[in-house]
Every structure is written in structure tokens, then in C-alpha cells.
Amino acid sequence: MSKSPATRARRERPLSPHLTVYRPPITMTMSIIHRITGGALYFGTLLVAVWLMAAASSQGAFDWVNWAFGTWLGRLILFGYTWALMHHMLGGVRHLIWDTGAGLEKHTASKIAWATLAGSVLLTLLIWIAGTMARGAL
């Protein structure tokens, strides 16, 4: 059975868009990241609970948790938690704006998505700078 050129061409092309062909829009990317940060907030909230339990239990436990959070890995995790919190919050504000019916045009939605990303990075940096300055002033 011979294959016609049309049949061969149909089989060689992708059956569906894939990562080498399709570029995800920023709104889709921010939606995915919003979901991921929501999951990450569960882990970060456990860290806050551990810190509170250590503060309520003994000075030794509190000192150990403060030491662990003060290591480079602990600070990196807390920095990521701060960013996840800011990004998820701004993503919620984005969805709240959309719930009013505003900002649903493709161009406007993309601008708001980029603003969510930039705002979360900026707020995270401002929080950590303010915290570092306050710690140095104490």
C-alpha cells in the first residue's frame, strides 16, 4: 500500500501545539504560577506555625528555630515564601478586578499580568529591605 504525499504531510506535522511551537501567553503563565504559589503558601504557613509553637514552648526551641531561619537556606526559603505570598495576593487582586468585568481585554489582561509579576518582586524586595533596616536599627 503506497502512501500519498498528502497523507505523509499530515502525519509529519504536529497533532497538537507543543512547547516548540506554542508560546504560552503571560496570563496563562501567571494563572499557573498563582496556583503553584497557593500550594507553596501551605508549606510557608507551616513554617509560621512552627515558629509560633517554638515561641510558645521554650527559649531553647525558639532560639533553635530562629537559628534555622537565619541560615542562608532558611532565609532563601523565607524569601521565597514572601514572594509567594505577595504574588498570590496580587493574583487575587487581579482576579478581583476581573470579577468586576474590568481588564478582560487581551491587551489589558496581559498588562495586569505583567504588573502582578513586577509588583510581587518589588513588594518582596521592599519587605526584605525594610526588615533588614529594622533589624539593623534594633
From TrEMBL:
It is found in: Membrane. Its cofactor is heme. Signal peptide: none annotated. Keywords: Heme, Iron, Membrane, Metal-binding, Transmembrane, Transmembrane helix. Its main location: membrane. It comes from the Bacteria. It holds the Pfam family Sdh_cyt. It is a multi-pass membrane protein. The chain crosses the membrane at residues 32-52, 72-91, 112-131. Belongs to the cytochrome b560 family. Membrane-anchoring subunit of succinate dehydrogenase (SDH). Part of an enzyme complex containing four subunits: a flavoprotein, an iron-sulfur protein, plus two membrane-anchoring proteins, SdhC and SdhD. The complex can form homotrimers. This is Succinate dehydrogenase cytochrome b556 subunit. The gene is sdhC.
